[in-house]
Amino acid sequence: MSATPPGYGWKVKMNHIFPERRNQNSKPRIRQIAKLLPLGVRYLAYYCKIAASGRQPLMDYWHMPTGKQIYGVPIGGIGCGTIGRGYKGEFCRYQLLPGLYEYHVVDANQFIVTIQDKDGKTIYQQVLSPKRKPKNYLSAWSWAFPGEKAQYHALYPRAWMVYDISEHDIRLICRQVSPVIPHNYKDSSLPTAVFIWTVENNSKDIKNVSITFTFKSGSGAKEDKTSVCCSEFFERKGNGIDVAGVLIQQQLKGMPCTFGISATQKENTNVSRCLSFDPNGTGDGMWNDLLEDGQFTEGEETKKNSYETACGVCVSCHAIPANGGQAEVEFSLVWDMPKVNFTGKGSTYTRFYTKFFERESSPGAALSHYALTNYKRWEDEIRKWQEPILNDKELPDWYKSAIFNELYFVSDGGTVWFIMPDCDKLSPLDVRIEYGRFAYLEGHEYRMYTSYDVHFYASFALALLWPKLQMSLQREICDVILSENDSRCKYLFDGKVAFKKVKNTVPHDLGDPECEPFLSPNAYPIHDVSEWRDLCSKFVLQVYRDYAVGEKDAQDLDHLKELWPVTKLVMERALSHFDLDGDGLIENGGFPDQTYDSWTMEGPSAYCGSLWLAALQCMVEMSKLMSELSEGEKYSSTLERAQQAFESKLWNGKYYNFDSSKSPHSTTIMSDQLCGQWYLKASEITKEVFPHDHVISALRTIYEFNVLKFANGSMGAVNGMTAEGTVDINAIQSEEVWTGVVYGLASLMVHEGMIEEAFKTAEGIYRTVYEQIGMGFETPEALYEKKYYRAIGYMRPLSIWSIQHAWEKWKCFRNAE
To answer: Is the pLDDT of residue 817 over 90?
Structure first.
């Protein structure tokens, strides 16, 4: 595998400064305040109550973080916890506690290079970080590597860091690899990353180069100082690979966790280890030990108990001159945290990866050896997955960065992946028996597991790359649909008191990590989601979409059969509760009763109406597969009436009106008005549910108004634009740009053959996030035209994978003509 970074990805120098810095301190407009004031008062009471109980509000509007503009590709597999890394080499943003983030940059976690001349004299020793020397610790270390001589390159799940030590004619390339591999459910679940260092000696003399990896206990939190740790050496051999390293055993919030750093012992390299050093001291002991001869003096001690501690692994090698080649050293980092609980501590869960290492007496050592033995295969699988996209000359370069780097959220979205408990109570056809229980957060700030209205957009990443996890998630949603919870909740939007979960309704989410997810769904406190108009349609659309994009094999069909009765239940309830005039088309209730939860729709609306029509068509398609012709006729008849109502009440000759109310804002051009058509196209349904000429006219109108007339066409599509060509400022969310909605819109444009418009639309949002405001790997939910954004680290941008799906389908269609 070549050490050279690929030609595509996100690239910056390590001293890079982004041209714009934004924050979340936006204030509602005067016209918006009257609508929001009662909600604000009730939210304040809710906030005080939650804070008094010692918990974090799951949406904290009083302490909204500002983007740090530091992040790069995080490390770790899916559902096992992740550790963020900055583009300057930092280890930061620890997400090891289920659903919770700790925003600490841990300075003791570093790579250090030592260079010796041919006579064994140390001529250079440097921390490979542009960070300035800390004031109170590790002062003996040499910091502040010149950032202009180092470059970062991100293409998730890999990253490259290139260091030019020109004064000694040495070039170092670090390749960071995490095992996030489509359709590979074992390796993708592992809590590990591998760092492969390539040493290029461009001088005329042989040099001895040592790379040292240091890592400390804990996550940088205050609790680190009072946590008892135990560090010990380990060695593992097998399959021709010898590995040596150090394990740090500790507890994080009462949960056992083992960190392990290790390296491969190869011919012409030497591995040495430092069992323990004080990360809060000067660091002079271990620094001077390296400085003397480029390796650690291990001593005889094999185990050490202490409070906060750090350890190190050093690999030294001969770097031959340029005409002879390169030297390579390999490190791994693992974090074995097999059993975890949420803050509520009501249940203990077992991480999915443990099923592959359950017989190991030292899983940390076994994981380390497995990672260093298998990373070359991982990279080969990653290359085979990515190359068809990277080598597609018709796709723009920026897109090849966006499509992979936005996938970071699958692992870094507070994701949990557990062995499913009580499997004997499940249907034998339930995929969770084999593939476990899966959930992820709506966002780093909006801490609700599997917010279903948002997952509807993001789900393309799972459905296309890890379809069994999407099936597992759908099973979880089905269980909750059939459940009920008659405890009373007072909702913040209007003060309404209602049941927390109504039977045969689709949940908003699977719960709050501060309580008990899975056991206590619908943590969302703003609205009574049993009245939401989009959730039912989104469930049905995903059920059919998952089948349509899958293998359509026996397991896919069995899965569909088991979900089919649930789709009928939710559709019947929606039809009886939300179609009050009997025309087959559901109406909105005059409050924000869908994913745009501060944007009111009344009567039939383009957004919920298009989703509903598409769901009816999917019910027709599924009835054929289930051989239930009478059901199909019923839904087909309802669809025919609903189509007539939709067209007559909402089509205005150019696009579909926002809603059918008498409000002056009913004619707003909504960028998401054809969301239902997007799913129909993605599901390869050929029936014309929406007249083709209407679809094209609406998309062209959206492109002309919401894209080109907003921010000079440089930021994607604003959610709402008036027919006069000004941004709709009636609601907070109408004047926002939603990153995930933009990618979904671009996907529909590709399906409809509007290729240039699609990539122009999507490019704007990518360049704004990654290049202008520096929020890659913490992509926000929403952007304003200037100064502000909302909700850091969000699920919905995973919808970018729907563009790739659309592109591949469009190419097949084009080539078949």
So the answer is: no
- Can you tell me the mean pLDDT for 82-88? 98
Q: Are strands 326-336 and 339-340 parallel, antiparallel or unpaired?
A: unpaired
Sign of the Cα torsion 545, 547, 548, 549 reads positive
pLDDT of residue 323: 58
Distance from chain centroid for Cα 129: 26
Helices 606-625/535-549 angle, 10° precision: 50
- H or E element that contains 607: helix 606-625
Q: Name the percent of the chain in helix, strand, coil, to the closest 5.
A: 35, 25, 40
Nearest to 112 by CA among 314, 377, 307: 314
Alpha-carbon distance of 178 to 169, in angstroms, equals: 30
**CATH number for the domain whose boundaries are 392-816:** 1.50.10.10
pLDDT tens figures, 154-196 = 999 999 999 999 999 999 999 999 999 999 999 999 999 999 9
Q: Which of 199-208, 539-548, 613-622 has the lowest mean pLDDT?
A: 199-208
pLDDT at site 813 = 86
Closest among 153, 118, 113 to 129, alpha carbons compared: 113
Mean pLDDT for the stretch of residues 392-420: 98
How open is the CA angle 164-170-174, to the nearest 5 degrees?
A: 65
- Identify the CATH class of 10-16+66-382: mainly beta
Helix (H) / strand (E) containing 742: helix 739-751
> CB pairs under 8 A, 24+ apart, for 753-758?
753/810, 754/696, 754/699, 754/700, 754/703, 755/810, 757/699, 757/700, 757/703, 757/707, 758/803
Domain locations along the chain: 10-16+66-382, 392-816
What is the token pair recorded at 282? Answer: 């000067």
pLDDT in tens, 530-563: 999 999 999 999 999 999 999 999 999 999 999 9
Cβ within 8 Å of residue 51, ≥6 positions away: 57
Closest listed residue to residue 196, CA positions, set 106, 328, 300: 328
Pairing of strands 303-306, 310-319: unpaired
The answer to whether the bond into 157 is cis (omega within 30° of 0) is: yes
Cα separation, 518 vs 509, in Å, equals: 9
The answer to whether residue 488 scores a pLDDT higher than 80 is yes
Confidence of residue 322 (pLDDT cuts 50, 70, 90): low
User: CB-based contacts of 219: which residues, under 8 Å, 6+ apart?
Assistant: 94, 96, 102, 104, 106, 252
Specify the length of the chain in residues: 817
